[in-house]
Design brief:
The chain has helices at residues 2-20, 134-141, 446-474, 476-497, 502-521, 530-539, 544-559, 567-587, and strands at residues 25-29, 33-35, 40-46, 51-54, 61-76, 79-92, 96-100, 104-107, 110-113, 117-122, 142-148, 159-167, 172-180, 187-192, 200-204, 207-221, 225-229, 233-245, 251-261, 265-269, 285-294, 298-299, 305-315, 331-333, 337-345, 348-361, 365-369, 373-378, 383-388, 392-396. A hairpin with a 2-residue loop joins β15 and β16 (207-221). The strands form 8 sheets. Strands 21, 23, 24, 25, 26, 28 and 29 form a 7-stranded mixed beta sheet that branches. Helices cover 25% and strands 38% of the residues. By secondary structure, it is an alpha+beta fold. It folds into 4 domains: 25-122, Immunoglobulin-like (Sandwich), CATH 2.60.40.740; 134-269; 288-396, Immunoglobulin-like; 477-587, Up-down Bundle (Four Helix Bundle (Hemerythrin (Met), subunit A)). The chain crosses the membrane at residues 446-465. This is Protein BatD. Residues 1-21 form the signal peptide.
């Protein structure tokens, strides 16, 4: 009987131990039905600590805050309990029934999943406004606006998008960062340097506000019809009052985070008129001047001159082709050299583009460079205009005379008619009495013809190779981009190898960012403060949003040591670091 009693007690202890060791991982929501203007809290709770927590996509919601992590330990009657929770605050995007999919976590080598939860999103509900509610403060006092200069432009007409952050008086915004940037599909785009953020006073819906210009972008629509400008979104940190007061009776403040968006904007792009469109029109839109010039009009044969085709003015200078120069066939002309001197301002592109042709005459005579024309669409008159260049005559003073007929209109001053006679070929021996030389047949062999023709065939290949090399060397922007990409890969190679290992990855990533700054800016390790980095990068003319992105990556490296990070988030931080290093290297002066 004692043996049976002992076995029973043993089984009870084992059952109790198994029950106490059972893993629980579940999802809980604050409510299963809510209005589209309310917020939903979802908690993912577990009774044992785990790794590699992966939340669901939340594709039907906007993540307002989270993940917020909390951990608790307790002892009750000698029994230890553990609870860990990941919390998210969600804002519904639309009405309807939506399912929040499974979250996963790895505990002791096993993967556990939560049960999907369905919530019903109804129409907006009436709820009292708490004047200290961060959502109310932000909605009433902070506005992100995208101002578009023109909503019905022609195709290839410049429009400007200015993003302004309006903040009401007595409201504080301590920080912000971009959470999504517009990609401007179907537009040629160029960001304009705002040279620091300046706080200005203005009006928003008739009321006094302070505002800063966050970004200016010039857009050239590349297709007709209804196009959408994607929204810019910011995560802002706002100082809001609490119900607590200090010993002097003053209300204490706290910080709250909120995502705001400028909203998408639509523009209607008009097609250029087909009526009276010139045959040589290549898409130029704006206000332009056109000319063809020559470095000299008198020279000797085998000397060179430079003929330049130039278009200058305001408009889409980088988005059309220059007309080609017509050169008589008796003049040797080389591939043109392109030169752009174009800057982009708030009103669009300004400057000039040119093509310079090197011309080498071979014979004495006068050679006309015929007039060529350039057509563009004038936005002021909404009509096409055609500009023509003057004819340029090249006078070759000394050199051999070209007795061949000139089909391109070249005039040879000493040109004489050649009269045929019976003795003109008298120097040709008609009975040479040739003797066969059988001792050597080298001149009839394949080796002879190969040796003779190979240099001739190599000439065009050498010319093509030289032109490709010159194009690559002349592509300053492309070379800087390639150099920046190689630089990013060089510094981030160790971080890439550590992807998936949280601590090792972020240590390597932070080290890579520091090493890059140390090599690029000659900043000593002791000077690595965010303020010093920001000040130095701005002094070197790096754009504000690029500096902000760099600082945010450094902050992520610091926070990642104390918060759970997924493989996807590590990859996102790696891609963001690579892109930011490349951008800094392209912008730095």
């Amino acid at each position: 009987m004692k043996t049976i009693k002992h076995i029973t007690i043993l089984f009870l202890l084992l059952a109790t131990s198994i029950a106490s060791a059972q893993v629980k991982f579940e999802a809980k929501v604050s409510k299963s039905e809510l209005g589209v203007n309310e917020r939903l809290r979802i908690d993912f709770e577990m009774n044992q600590d785990g790794d590699n927590f992966n939340p669901p996509s939340f594709q039907d919601f906007t993540v307002v805050a989270g993940p917020n992590q909390s951990v608790s330990h307790s002892w009750i009657n000698g029994k230890k309990s553990f609870n860990k929770t990941y919390s998210y605050f969600l804002a519904p995007k639309n009405q309807g029934k939506f399912t929040i999919n499974q979250a996963t976590i790895e505990i002791d080598g096993e993967v556990y999943k939560t049960t999907p939860i369905t919530v019903n999103i109804t129409s907006a509900v009436d709820k009292p406004k708490d004047p200290n509610d961060p959502d109310v403060i932000i909605a009433d006092n902070i506005h992100l606006v995208a101002e578009v200069s023109k909503t019905n432009p022609y195709i290839n007409e410049a429009i400007t998008v200015v993003y302004k952050l309006y903040v009401a008086p007595n409201t504080g915004v301590s920080n912000w960062r971009e959470t999504s940037s517009p990609s401007y599909n179907d537009f040629w785009s160029q960001n304009i340097d705002t040279k620091g953020l300046k706080v200005l006073n203005g009006k928003y819906k008739g009321e006094d506000y302070r505002y800063v210009v966050l970004r200016k972008t010039v857009l050239y629509p590349q297709k007709t019809g209804k196009l959408e400008i994607e929204p810019l979104s910011l995560d802002i940190t706002v100082d809001v009052p609490t119900n607590r007061r200090n010993i002097f009776g003053e209300r204490l403040m706290t910080q709250a985070h909120k995502t705001i968006t400028a909203g998408s904007r639509q523009i209607h792009v008009k097609a250029l008129p087909e009526k009276n469109k010139p045959a040589n029109f290549t898409g130029a839109v704006g206000d332009f001047d056109f000319r063809v010039t020559s470095s000299k009009t008198e020279l000797n044969a085998t000397e060179s001159l430079s003929a330049t085709v130039e278009v200058s003015g305001n408009g889409n200078l980088k988005l059309f082709e220059l007309p080609n120069l017509n050169v008589p066939s008796s003049l040797e002309v080389y591939e043109p050299e392109n030169k752009d001197n174009v800057r982009t301002t708030g009103s669009g592109m300004q400057g000039k583009r040119s093509q310079s042709y090197t011309i080498v005459p071979q014979f004495k005579g006068k050679y006309p460079l015929p007039s060529i024309s350039f057509s563009y669409f004038d936005l002021k008159t909404e009509s096409y205009k055609t500009l023509a260049s003057d004819e340029i005559v090249i006078d070759v003073l000394q050199g051999p005379t070209n007795v061949a007929s000139n089909e391109n209109g070249a005039i040879s001053p000493n040109k004489q008619t050649v009269i045929a006679n019976n003795d003109q070929f008298a120097f040709i021996k008609t009975k040479p009495n040739l003797v066969s030389a059988k001792k050597s047949n080298f001149f009839k062999t394949t080796g002879f013809w190969t040796a003779l023709l190979a240099p001739l065939l190599a000439i065009p290949l050498a010319i093509v190779f030289r032109n490709k090399r010159d194009e690559r060397l002349a592509d300053v922007t492309g070379n800087r981009i390639r150099k920046a990409d190689r630089l990013a890969k060089k510094y981030l190679s160790e971080a890439k190898r550590a992807l998936g290992q949280k601590e090792a990855f972020y240590v390597a990533l932070e080290k890579a960012l520091h090493n890059y700054l140390k090599a690029k800016l000659q900043i000593e390790t002791s000077d690595f403060t965010k303020e010093k980095i920001t000040e130095t990068l701005l002094e070197r003319q790096v754009e504000d949003h690029t500096v902000t992105e760099f600082i945010s990556i450094l902050k992520n490296c610091e926070l990642a040591r104390y918060t759970p990070i997924t493989q996807v988030e590590m990859q996102q931080d790696y891609d963001k670091a690579s892109k930011t290093i490349s951008e800094i290297d392209k912008q730095i002066r």
